[in-house]
Design brief:
This protein is 30% helix and 13% strand. By secondary structure, it is of the alpha/beta class. The chain binds nicotinamide-adenine-dinucleotide (NAD).
């Protein structure tokens, strides 16, 4: 399915010379030693001479602190065997693409990567993202922004790809085939340049779950032809493609299944429940509860998610991993927390439920706790005020509460 895929043929053929000297030491190390498939691609011709290495492999792995970040770049390790990086060869950080980096989650991830010292290229078509989310990096030589739709192929030389580009709310995802085609293109890029690829999948792959809480081994209960299917099934297909590229082409992949996340920079009117309630309460409109309001969701603050994504990318496990906050709230409880935070008199208005709305959602995060050493830290009552002050500013232009977007 994967080898010889259309994306590959859209990129330059493997044998053609590159536009500039190859600088990665890792392309030929990306093959998994444990992958024994006879159809595996032979990358041996990509061996690159030591003098092109400019990446410091001495940076410590944030999870296994005693190990270098990219141990597999063994050639550089030998070169640097004295433990001292020769002047002029000092690393400039990893080169990382964040597709969808101008969006809500993506822009917070970009902040962390830049802060860590990496070079970041944001690829975004601004369908739901905004330049304002990343404008504070303009002028930083380690930051680039490319307006590009990932349904079209793209060639960039990078070490890692965080693939987030995808309309994530019902209002938007019905109009865009990003999930499948965009993921295929970005996997093609990862395969071509030997980059590690992380897919931001979703708890929606569990559909209306028959198992509670949801463990990664649960295969889900998804309607393949419903109004939400383009998103749910799109992400399921994206996971399939990701695993096929891993097994079939030796691409290093990671899969995160993200549960409801909230925080500053969320799209204001995109129909997601937290942003809906907060915007409505601020505007003194009634909060719309669909159905009886007893359906449950878990709400994760964005900084917790970003930490989980980075641990997953740098760690050794493919996943999938549930990344979410296991605290479970009914919609009515959420509305109450919003009332407490914004306006105790905010009204609630009931509307008929939407089609295929899951009744329950709560992640089992045992796997992420054990293998990534990760768990969320920010409670809803602590994270919500940070989002509220951002929304207030964007809705009313109120600059009084300008400041932190991080919760400790
Ligand atoms: N926020 C959540 O609660 C949540 C939950 C589960 C999964 N996710 C996943 O996390 C990722 C980020 O979600 P988010 O909440 O930040 O949403 P978002 O809409 O704020 O961000 C998505 C970004 O992708 C960009 N984009 C969309 N289609 C594109 C295309 N074809 N080419 C280039 N860029 C494109 C948008 O402009 C936007 O900047 C998505 O893949 C989403 O499915 C998010």
């Amino acid at each position: 399915m994967v080898l010889g895929d259309p994306t590959d043929s859209l990129h330059a053929p493997r044998a053609t010379p590159r536009l500039r000297p190859r600088r990665h030491c890792h392309s030929h190390h990306r093959i998994h030693p444990h992958t024994s498939s006879s159809s595996r691609v032979d990358y041996s011709h990509l061996t690159i001479h030591d003098t092109y290495f400019d990446h410091d492999t001495t940076r410590l792995n944030p999870i296994n602190h005693d190990k270098p970040l990219y141990e597999h770049r063994s050639a550089f390790k030998n070169y640097n065997s004295g433990g001292k990086v020769p002047l002029g060869l000092k690393r400039k950080g990893l080169r990382i693409v964040v597709t969808g980096g101008a969006g809500f989650v993506g822009s917070h991830l970009v902040d962390r990567l830049i802060e860590r010292g990496d070079s970041v290229i944001v690829v975004d078509n601004f369908f739901t993202g905004r330049k304002e989310n990343v404008m504070h990096h303009f002028g930083n030589p380690r930051f680039e922004l490319i307006r590009h739709d990932v349904v079209e192929p793209l060639l960039l030389e990078v070490d890692q790809i965080y693939h987030l580009a995808c309309p994530a709310s019902p209002v938007h995802y019905k109009f865009n085939p990003t999930n499948v085609v965009g993921t295929l293109n970005m996997l093609g890029l990862a395969k071509r340049v030997g980059a590690r690829f992380l897919l931001t999948s979703t708890s929606e792959v569990y559909g209306d779950p028959l198992q509670h809480p949801q463990v990664e081994t649960y295969w889900g209960n998804v309607n393949p032809i419903g109004v939400r299917s383009c998103y749910d099934e799109g992400k399921r297909t994206a996971e399939t493609l990701t695993m096929d590229y891993h097994r079939g082409a030796g691409v290093e992949v990671r899969i995160a299944r993200i549960f409801n996340t909230y925080g500053p920079r969320m799209c204001i009117d995109d129909g997601r429940v937290v942003s809906n309630f907060v915007a409505q309460a601020l505007r003194k409109e009634p909060m719309t509860v669909y159905g009886d309001g007893k359906q449950t969701r878990s709400f994760q603050y964005v900084s917790d998610l970003v930490e989980g994504l980075m641990r997953l990318m740098e760690g050794e496990h493919v996943g999938p991993f549930n990344l979410g906050n296991p605290g479970e709230f009914t919609m009515l409880q959420l509305a109450n927390v919003v009332q407490e935070t914004i306006d105790p008199d905010a009204k609630i208005e009931y509307r008929p439920n939407t089609e295929d709305d899951p009744h329950k959602r709560k992640p089992d995060i045992t796997k992420a706790k054990e293998l990534l050493g990760w768990e969320p830290k920010v409670e809803l009552r602590k994270g919500l005020p940070l989002m509220v002050s951002d929304f207030r500013k964007r809705i009313f232009g109120d600059h009084k509460e300008e400041g932190a977007t991080t919760a400790k």
